[in-house]
Amino acid sequence: MAKKAVVSKEPEVGIQLHPSLKGPLNGSKKNNNSSDKKEQIGTRTFKSKMEEFYSTLKKAENQSVLVVIKGYPDPDSIASSLAFQFIGGFYGIESTILHFDEISHQENKALVKKLGIELVQYEDGFDFSSYKYLVFNDTQTTDLPIVLPKEMSPLILVDHHKNLDVKEAIFTDIRENSGSTCAIYTEYLIQGPVNLEAGDSEAVRLATALMHGIRSDTDNFILANEIDFLAAAYLGHLTDRDLLSIISHQSISAKTMDITQTALEKKVIKGTYLFAGVGFVREEDRDGIAQAADYLLRREGIETVIVFGVVGNRYIDGSLRTTSHTLDPDKWIKDLFGVSEEGKPYGGGRRDKGGFQLPLSVFSRCKDKDLLWKVAEHTIEDIFYKKIGINRELEDEQET
Ligand SMILES: [Mn+2]
What we know:
Layout: H1 13-16, E1 38-41, E2 44-47, H2 49-59, E3 64-69, H3 75-89, E4 94-99, H4 106-114, E5 119-121, E6 133-137, E7 153-159, E8 171-174, H5 181-191, H6 201-217, H7 226-236, H8 241-248, H9 254-266, E9 268-270, E10 273-281, H10 287-296, E11 304-311, E12 315-322, H11 329-337, E13 347-350, E14 353-359, H12 369-390
Parallel strand pairs: 3-4, 3-6, 4-5, 6-7, 7-8, 10-11
Antiparallel strand pairs: 1-2, 9-10, 11-12, 12-14, 13-14
Helix pairs in contact: 3-5, 3-6, 4-8, 5-6, 5-7, 6-7, 6-8, 9-10
Manganese (II) ion binds at residues 76, 138, 160, 180-181, 217.
């Protein structure tokens, strides 16, 4: 894989030299180069996360790495995985991006297709034998729907969700103050030895994907933090704006429209809360639940929306969206559903959004789907009503 983008001013050295051994590599373009910047804590000096990131790559030099996308691939997880693949390429790291769940959102399908991003969906018989390491982006847990060969170990884990304090990889970088995982990867590019060069098609492709990831995870920068803005400023002149526009203005799929319509019909409003159970949803249409929640949140007077359904006949899957200043989606969802027998929470979130997934397990065998849905809906609504009742925020004004 030929890498045309430039490793700063010394195109040859990026692979051979340990980045932390190199001084600031860039001259004119980057005044804020901080490969020599250290985090000062007390009298001890720690390497910056950027340096640690690149020295971890150095450890994996010329190895094959599996970049795993957990859950439904979204712009942030796709683009940050692409960023790893790109940067890793400078260290001779061959990587495959593997996902388990369908790419279900029109926008994500467009991102992958228009940018020609190579994603591999897991199938039985996938050959793991050549991969030594694993990389996880936009998540903090490394459990997967399948059992991986023991020889593979997690190398890098980068995320921006609430810190769960699980250090499952050699290098872990979790920044709650970032609106996206893409912004963290962009920081590695801004501060580190691997740069993006205008005019290089690979660089433009990555910059466009990263910009889309940041834009998408920060609700068009409304929820962006400093790191997201800095990243966007760096990516701005590299981004293919026409392409970005095409990717981000994808039409809403007919299925999502149907789910949104069902949500509108079934909605129950309690005070500033809106709940909607949408019944059975196919696995590949799962994103329609989240998009319906996004849409319903725009209703006047509503602060929090929960849309849920039975997905793939396997889970009760739900999305929460909120504009409330007091509701913490992560805590709220964890309080509601607790943890599984293995101690894993059934859901979580960050700032303005969250989600949950409750296994139906043996109940999925129920032949009477209407009955199964009644039980699911009734149970979930009971849990929600009890929760908001305790908060004494309940004002009955149920709509028809
Ligand atoms: Mn994200």
